[in-house]
Amino acid sequence: MKNMTEKEKMKKIREVLENNKALGHAITLLHWDLETEAPKDAVERISKTLGYLTGENYSMIINDEFKNLVYSVNSEELDEVDKKIIKELKKEYFEKLEKIPKEDYMKYSELKVVSTKKWEEAKNKDDFNIFKPYLSEVIEYNKKFIKYRGYEGNPYDTLLDDYEPEITVKELDEFFNNIKNELSPFIKKIVEKKKSDKEIEDKKKLSEMTFDITKQKEMSLYALNLIKFDFNKGILKESEHPFTTNVNNKDVRITTHYYEHDLLSSVYSTVHEGGHALYEQHIDDKITDTILGTGVSMGIHESQSRIYENMFGRNKEFLKFIFPKIDEMFGLSKQGIDFESFYKLTNEVQTSFIRTDADELTYPIHILIRYELEKDIFSNLDEKTDVDKLAEKWADKYEEYLGIRPESCKEGILQDVHWSDGLFGYFPSYALGSAYAAQIYDAINQKINIDKELEKGDFSKINEILKEGIHKYGKMKTPKELIKNITGTSFDSKHYINYLKEKFSKIYDIK
Amino acid sequence: MKNMTEKEKMKKIREVLENNKALGHAITLLHWDLETEAPKDAVERISKTLGYLTGENYSMIINDEFKNLVYSVNSEELDEVDKKIIKELKKEYFEKLEKIPKEDYMKYSELKVVSTKKWEEAKNKDDFNIFKPYLSEVIEYNKKFIKYRGYEGNPYDTLLDDYEPEITVKELDEFFNNIKNELSPFIKKIVEKKKSDKEIEDKKKLSEMTFDITKQKEMSLYALNLIKFDFNKGILKESEHPFTTNVNNKDVRITTHYYEHDLLSSVYSTVHEGGHALYEQHIDDKITDTILGTGVSMGIHESQSRIYENMFGRNKEFLKFIFPKIDEMFGLSKQGIDFESFYKLTNEVQTSFIRTDADELTYPIHILIRYELEKDIFSNLDEKTDVDKLAEKWADKYEEYLGIRPESCKEGILQDVHWSDGLFGYFPSYALGSAYAAQIYDAINQKINIDKELEKGDFSKINEILKEGIHKYGKMKTPKELIKNITGTSFDSKHYINYLKEKFSKIYDIK
User: Fold this and answer.
1) Where along this sequence does the record place binding of Zn(2+) (chains A, B) (predicted)?
2) pTM listed for this prediction
């Protein structure tokens, strides 16, 4: 190693990473297979294979020889991409993982498997007690890991950084305070407004209609073509829960789920995942097969899925463009649902218990609640968290912010899989994504008139701005750098609050 | 190693093989993905990943440490399965591959890629000259490999053994002589018989019908359910060319291809692949994840696909059972195609140039021709094969045995991919499979009345006999042992000749 030039070292590092990429590709495909088509009885073999490949993938990177090689590189002599690769390797693999003793890591990995199963059982039986001891253990492990990994400021920052690099409790407090103070009362105004007979009638009609699955598929493909999803570089399939997965920028796969009585569900899932997919398809060829060749953070990723789903997909001008097609395919106006009704139904605000069913306006409140609970859990590492009280706190917050109190844990603390799988610090990125999206939306509107593009159903200019401003960079820029790059300023939640208030004031005629 | 017990050695060997299985699983899935759904532009990344995984899979086994371990095992002390694993490892990996110098093997692998591309180009342009030099090189490499690997008797035996262990030119000469002497004149009689107006009319009607693809899929699923394909352990999908692939007995995947104007094509492809799939699904749990856990040979595999496709699937009683369903779905009798017409159309004999389009009766003649040519090529290793003359010999044989002479190479020597990919010795197993199938059919008929089962559409007894007699063994028995096991005697082609003559004499009213 001593006699190697930096170029030779980089060549060797890139070789290992290329093999790592190949194994990662196989792992991605096995997961994709499992979720979309593998036969039921194949699951055992698939987990064995995944176990082996994941282990190989880990030990290929996490070993002293490779670590020493990485740390021996003098980054000053590298080009921009290689420099960033070295930085990313150190951060993602050595600084994060290596600080956690292998034994703890193994036990925690096993715990997460059991914990997720127990969560599932608890949810099915609507019995929090089944899940409690596992939740408690997962929480305490995470506290332990924060201590291993270290922190400045709030300990919760360490977890937040895993999903949204560089974001801190300090910034999120400000963000979520705005949401709490501005949106919570605004939502109450909307919800308290009496619905007209026509609104009630329209909703009933839509829910009673049947939407042919083959036609829904056609509609999903039509929508993907509109937003310029590249079918040479990706596919659409079905799965229980919609998701996006990607090998590189030439292999980006998304799923949706079709329900016979719910047209909006499949179409908006498709467009949501389509937004994730465009981000991945637009990543620069130069970095696509490196560890920098994927979306930089959960928050930025979610900003792209939500800008397509909500800001473009539920935009009035866009819906005007697409309504005739929908109407032709599914005969809405024959049932008395005209464009104005359809637009309202597409943007209906309703307080509800389940996060994943929430509309665009109430969604961030669900996240606010989780954020406050998580922050509470991890702000003090030395005291054991009282999981008994968590479900109650959960319900209290729903009552306080949305005016509804979940009667069961299934509708409350047991609804999300995240905590059972140790994903603390993940939720905030969902709300952050929407807020980024609103700020990005305003920035695009400085360059072009979005409504004018959407009334033609033309995404070419919009896509180009997003590709050049965000997508192509992959992990070459941090989330904060990307926001600055495309909007010219730092993140500011006022865009989001204003966007929501303006949009829904109009729809619900609120002064 | 010296201090290890045989049990410890076996444990270590099984560990390596388990990892090998995991990589093999990933490789299988990547190929499956490539053929069934991967986006167009993903191909480059997929080949890179396959290259890496295949290399790893190879070097995991082919290395001195593992080889020494395998050869250090005293097989006498092992149970039957482990004994067979050691034998298979030695035969498949060390005795076969190791004798070929790595450099030759690498060059040959590269050659095959180019050669296949050149074959494709030659076929598209119908120009044998493009392919000739590559074909010549592939042939000479195979001769060289035979020399490296050694042979007793005919050199061609060494290649034959790769696809049908233990079969020799001596046995195949007898087999194909029977086909030539008995079937070739019989086919001529049938072909020379004038068709009735009704027969001509029926054929035209069927070819002019349109068969809804969604309904064809339903029909394929119905057929698979009938033959008791287990959908918990497998799936049906679509691809350009139908095929079967398997990870273990709980993950067996098949494809078919739907054509709007050809109902029989998709259904019989499905049933053919379904036969392959049943074989794999029925393999014993004890061996399924070992190197013994798959079909033993091409010939035995083909016997199972063809027994379901032809002997059961085109059987008159079975067609009587299934015709009402087909008729209900596709309205054949409304078009004037009654059961008798349908049965005749399903078993139509027609001389043709293209092997893959051939009917049950003329099919073995296509194989006979390839066998004679290959035998000719490899019987003399020291003389360079004159590939210029091959296309002419090909045409001469079609004229002699089927009475038709291909006018173009596309319809002649360029039709099959096999030779471009170095698959010499492969073709005979196709015909052998049908002949095995006929003998197995007669053996089943000794135990139960197949017609009686098929007229009820009931495959449970048939499947059980095949599972117990053949399927469950995987590679635990050789092809010859399996034939003996299920039929009580050695292979004899008279069953096949008799079966074909009897069936088609009746259909075509030939005395």
Assistant:
1) 272, 276, 302
2) 0.93
